[in-house]
Amino acid sequence: MQLSETVEWGLHACLALAMMPEGARIPARALAEYHGIKPGYFSKAMQKLVAAGIIQSVEGRSGGLAMAKQAEDVSLLQIVMALEDHKTFFRCSEIRQKGPCAAAPEHYRAPCNIARVMHKADAEWRRVLATTSLADLRLSAAAEPIPGVNEATQDWLAETGAVRGL
Amino acid sequence: MQLSETVEWGLHACLALAMMPEGARIPARALAEYHGIKPGYFSKAMQKLVAAGIIQSVEGRSGGLAMAKQAEDVSLLQIVMALEDHKTFFRCSEIRQKGPCAAAPEHYRAPCNIARVMHKADAEWRRVLATTSLADLRLSAAAEPIPGVNEATQDWLAETGAVRGL
DNA sequence: GTCGGGCTACTCGGATATTGGCTGTCCGAGTCTGACTGG
DNA sequence: CCAGTCAGACTCGGACAGCCAATATCCGAGTAGCCCGAC
Hints:
Structural class of chain A: mainly alpha
Helix content of chain A: 40-55%
Order of helices and strands of chain A: HHHEEHHHH
Oligomer: homodimer
Radius of gyration of chain A: 21 Å
């Protein structure tokens, strides 16, 4: 039932990309290394985000990843759903229609009360994520910096030369 | 990321048990057959609900399953969490502490903003399920019956003699 | 007729395969950079 | 000195294994009901 760990990766990666200057790009390998993630499987998550139009990839020697949209226009829900293939938590297989006492199918137009509650819970879960954008995260992250991380990041970027396109 | 299908089974089964008269019990096999479920794996879900104290099982020749609590005292969340081992959707592995630019661990007492949002979404999901009880489901199910199902159920119960303990 | 005992059938619970999806690894196609060469 | 060309290296994207948990199946331990026989 748990979300794939690529969800956590994707969210942190998108937040990192959203904090980069306009036009900058960074290779997926460097982005993975920065987060302490093995690059192989991480690239799979990035591929899904590219397919969803959330980030863009530039091929070639100085290629890399960058946001494809403004941070204000990307909700956390979009990222999560892209990585989880737009699935819902609860899946109703309509078992009420399956037993020996089931009625004719035309009597089951409305979803059952169990499915209604479960889908409502799913909707609430999504609502929270839909009403939070990457820009919101960027703002709150800037408001509560971890001491030393920003400086270390700047040094690391300069040292490795991971950022291109500026 | 999806919930196990045992969640759907468990919810429908609990609702069925909650609709039975006080003191009645029904074998897991019959309960599975009534819902058109293969009995083998279904019993695993029932075992978890027994371990959680939501339903009770009676062994022996005329044994079976019955509610262990009043329907008013069982929320959908309790059922789902019992079947899903009380896991949360989002798992934060604190990757912010893992990269080459991470600070000392004592600077990461508060959860990161990403985890906060995700956990808030999880909390909203649970809130919906926690505020709905089996009694609520029983009430709404009685208010909108499917034509013929109740009669067929009574006939089926009488025919198979699945209900014991009355 | 009644009581006791034992047998049988039926139940739950756990041990044991199997499968599907998430995770991990690797290699090839494509492209930009940079140097080299010729004018 | 400058422009064109070419080799090289680095990038993403997809194809191919490994592993864990969800799913499925089966069998054994235990118990309640029922039958039979003795009193």
